[in-house]
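Changelog-adjacent note: as of this version, every example in the card shows the full chain rather than a window. The one below runs 506 residues end to end.
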Amino acid sequence: MIDKALIVNLDATRTKYDPKGAASVVDALRALVAADKARGLNAGLIDLSDAATMKRYKAKAVTNPKSERQAKDAVDAVYAALKPDYLVIIDGPDVIPHVTLDNPVPKDKDKSVPSDLPYASDAPFTSSDAAKYAAVTRVVGRIPGITGAAAPDHLIKLIRSSAAFKSRPQKDYSPYFAISAQVWEKSTEESVNNIFRSKAIKVCPSTGTPGVARRLAPLSHFFNCHGGEVDPQFYGQKGQQYPVAMTSGDVAKGAKRNTIIAAECCFGAQLFDPSWAQGKLPISNAYLEAGAIGFFGSTTTAYGPEEGNSAADLITQYWLINALAGASLGRSCLQARQKFVAGQKMEDPVNLKTLAQFVLLGDPSLEPCLKDGSRSKAILAAIDDSAARKTRRIALTAAGKAAYDSSGFPGKKIARPPKALHNLVRKLARKRGMRAGSGDIEAFHIVGGEDYGREMKSRDVQQSVIVVTNHRRPTGKRPEGLPVIEVMVAHSQDNRLISVADYVRR
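Full-length structure tokens:
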């Protein structure tokens, strides 16, 4: 019985690092298997590229490492056969790919959403629609190497960090570092208060590079800053000023081993090739290189409100709250996704994109905080951790399916929305200062999970959502890679407006 499946593609690993480098990766993974055994976990290496191995799981080997379909099908077969408590994807998307999903908010100009969400769902690879994978039932994380690297040193270091990790008292993770762009100060205070029961944060400006490196000693980090595509920096904002809040170099100087990080920033978890950024690591890779154990962030443009909490605010704080409460990093990710699906309007395309774009980088089996110390040692010693974990997985699988069945999702595009509703939404958008031209507006029919759809049918109602995406021309000294994007989402039932949500690009 395998509790923890280490998913590798050794053919692709040999191509990336050469056979000697790949052998070093395997040696490190075998040491991780031994360390997991000492922690009570039965871990095993599963090579998706090995035909004999995959035959045991009634599946075909991955012959094209760029094929997302082959990778997803192979992982599904492994999961169906073993039902492991943890799925661990080894290396970056150049070895085992993200699954490319359609962008639910296409007018924000992200071409697609690279995602690990499909690996966390039992739904087969039949569509690039993120909604098809919203029944989230698996614990998944990725230990990423450096994309495009010729040597496996970074990946091996991360694997060894996982093997050496030991859970710590919760009090060690209570001190925190949180930083916000000044314009989102109130939103970040609300998030941080939900997580740490304190509103103390740093804002940028005035906190920023290079002095920020001295503030990175706490083991819990939370970011609500701007991020850019292929950019090793996060940015603050005050008015039309966009100072650099932190760089990957700052992380290398100041971050400590065993840190956990939640980042709302756009592209915060994008695993780009450092050669595309003058040799500088992505901030997520820099944290893991420094010994961090978990980074939860977005692969593309993320959203939240200017004030209050929604979208990226919520899913990041859910993850961090769970991790601080004693859950593994992977279970924290699964529960964050499930709570987001169950509690938010998933017919909102921004929410669907949020679900798809946030990924866990790090070993999902690691538990940052020791379990509740209020129980007696006798009770803790008597509990069978493996059986308890598998019982939780049963409940979480059922919860993920129930959340999906109870949710609505954006369906087919409406070519011509009803004129009165269209004009009302356009009027509201223009009152918010949005251009709201014909090319800025899209409308979608709402389809439901099984229970949601049944209820719509029984009540003989039709629901739709209208999305207005606005690109403003940057002013001041805004960096070129940080476009100004605002999104307004209007929900309707039987062509009557029922709610409106506003978002800005993070």
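Structural remarks: The longest strand covers residues 463-472.
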